[in-house]
Fold this protein.
Amino acid sequence: MISWLKKCILNWFQSLVLRIIKTGEMPKHVAFITDGNRRYANKYNLSRREGYLKGLNKINNILNWCMHLGIVETTIYLFSITNFKRSKKEIDNLMDIIKQLFKSLLENKEKLKDNGICVRVIGNLSLLSEDLNKLIAEVMIVTGENNRIFINFAVAYTSRDEITHAIKDIIQGVKNTDILPEDINEDLITDCLYTYKSPNPDLLIRTSGENRLSDFLMWQRSRIYIGGRCCCKFTGETV
């Protein structure tokens, strides 16, 4: 009974907060660096896998909040290329959880369609397993025609890798005479990035409260300023 009452009060309070927030100007595109799962697991004596699963649930909450606030596009940093330096067991757990995420998206493809949600994945997908790539491709295909809300997941991603691939594509274009050297400018580089379909984020949030940038959307974030700073953090308990 107490648990039910607490949940009702929380839902009412969340709705009130959302209504208040929506009275102000809303960002169109918000990017999130998901962080703090391992610290959360250590704090509460959980396994790292349990910590990551908690983080996955928090991602679902974040996406729901963004939808209720009318935020059109969200980008979630799921897995950095540097994460491949972790132990095989931890990498396997992370990849298994990411697979669960995309399987869940496929199972709910009708809901995604009803809400007009298009799912995109950015990153160096050649570094991922064949079965995960297949799942990613299926999700992007079944949601590709949706155009009201856009959710981007960065998997096997770093800005260094993204910019390197953009430069290689431009060099190849010059070799093929598709691009003239004088055509190379900021706009061309932007069009060659993994995020070429998306506007630059208006706001960046790192969920753990850390201020490290973690090589995430470095090119795209060059024009983001929130209160004179280039990133914003949550307060309170997050995972």
In short: The first strand starts at residue 29 and ends at 33. Helices lie at 2-21, 37-43, 48-69, 88-107, 109-114, 130-143, 159-175, 186-191.
